Input
Amino acid sequence: ITHFEHLSLQQIEKIEKLANDAIRQNLPVHKLVLDRGEAENKYGFSIYQGGIAPGKNIRVQEIETWDVEACAGTHVSSTGELGIIKIIKNERIQDGVERLEYVAGEIAIEYIQKQNRLLDSISNNLSVPIDKLNQTVDDLIHDNDAIKRDSKSLIKNHLADIICNHLNSSSVKISDISLSILDWNHVDEDFHILVGEHCINKINNLIYIGIINTDKSSRLFIFCGEKINQKYKAVDLARQISKAFGGSGGGTDRFAQGGCSKISDHNTIINIVQSIVNAE
Output
């Protein structure tokens, strides 16, 4: 359908209600074969909203008091045969054009029942009635956000110093830099950004490389301290290390990120840093 903006849920519900109202009225559907000129003169060019029908003679579907379209597809004899319509998806396929996907009849009932089973399962898992799910989910999101804030505060105000001291004492010394590689399990992007930022502020000749591993890939978070980031840029390190493992990276002199296949050992990283240092 044509529409100047993406359809809202309320608008979709209104369209769905109008369609089902037409179904309940059990309106007859007249299948006509007309000369193209006759059809256009009688109904106008709006019959081509679903696309131009080919041929000199065209097949026209007329729903009494409701709609007329040129269409050669399969159609019911009356709207009541559809039983029910349920819109299941809408997407904007181009500027001013929305595509609606829907199911009808038994398939629509099956879809609604499936959605009901899903709601019932969520309700049971959360031990709340279905009509309270919306508020419960909002509360869970709020609590989760609070936990994240508290975790960041804990890392920033307490753990970062401890981790920084550990990294400083265990770092690899290469010429005038200290290199620390951290690939602890069960830490996330926020952890590496908080800890990496804290550590290079405290140790200005540090290269911090945080790694998050999954089964098949790795993400890199690289920080370079102020004393050295003009000579050894984080973005160069991210690109070269990621490239060595089939990936790519980008960023700034101070902070960069990369993605690549899973990093199985640190020796390649140490060798790359060593080669960059030696090149200087």
Remarks:
- The chain has a mean pLDDT of 89.
- Helices lie at 9-24, 36-43, 105-126, 133-170, 189-202, 234-244, 267-279.
